Amino acid sequence: MSADATAPAPPAHLIQGDRVALPVEIRDAAVASAMFAVPSDAAQAVIAYSGLEVASPLPGRAVCSLAFVRYADGDLGPYHEFAVAFLVKGTAGARGRVGAFVHWLPVNQAFTLEAGRTIWGFPKEMADIRMDLASRTRRCLVRVDGRTALEMHVRPGVPVPSRRAAAGVDAFTHMDGTTRRTPWTVSASGVRARPGGAYLHLGDHPVAHELRALGLDRARALSCATVDRVRMTFQDAVEVRT
Fold it and tell me: Which pLDDT value is given to residue 9?
């Protein structure tokens, strides 16, 4: 009997009758994102439920990242996604000094919603997400239950050399009383970046009110970036004691 025949099967989850094996691979996605400096105390209050602590690269300032992603080819199928995340201090077992805590993650397809919540505890919810990644200015509009959450525009900057090796990131989530850490690797090509360059309009959804309380209705982005093609790998989640 060959060694491969006796090797244990990779971990997997049953999602809507389909087996999703780990790690989950995303082979083609496009991204537009912006990073904002926000008051550390206010950001900490937003994510207090997670038990994690925001990172403050500048005195009294935390970093909130907003991103919209079009997934074209991956193990969870094609879908649109918007992410609200905060840089947080790493925990025991984390690979780096900081990670990304995912606070809100609307998507527009049911399969990825169930997979994200079941496998990693990602706070996915169903939304109407309309985006334009083909025009000079990238645009995304997110509506939930008929209410506008936000609209974001990102203006691409100058080309940035792409890394040959995939970068490792720790994504943190909190759901049903449990905080989890998911090792995540990313490789990108066709990257453009610039200072500023983002426009954000906030609606009347509860998340919009949270972002408005952080000052994002009047804040200038620290930086923004667009990526023509991203590849990602998501490992299984591990529970974190906070």
Answer: 65
Residue 69 has pLDDT above 50, yes or no: yes
CB 187 within 8 A of CB 227: no
pLDDT at position 8: 65
C-alpha to C-alpha distances, 126 to 113, 133, 196, nearest whole angstrom = 7, 21, 29
Sequence-ordered list of residues with C-beta below 8 angstroms from that of 155, at least 6 positions apart, any chain? 136, 137, 138, 194, 197, 198, 224
Percent pLDDT > 90 in the chain is 86
Which letter does DSSP use for residue 50 in this model?
G
* Residues 6+ away with beta carbon under 8 Å from 112: 71, 76, 77, 79, 81, 124
Give the 3-state secondary structure of residue 59.
coil
Chain centroid to CA 205: 19
Q: Whole-angstrom Cα distance, residue 191 to residue 193?
A: 7
Q: What is the pTM of this model?
A: 0.92
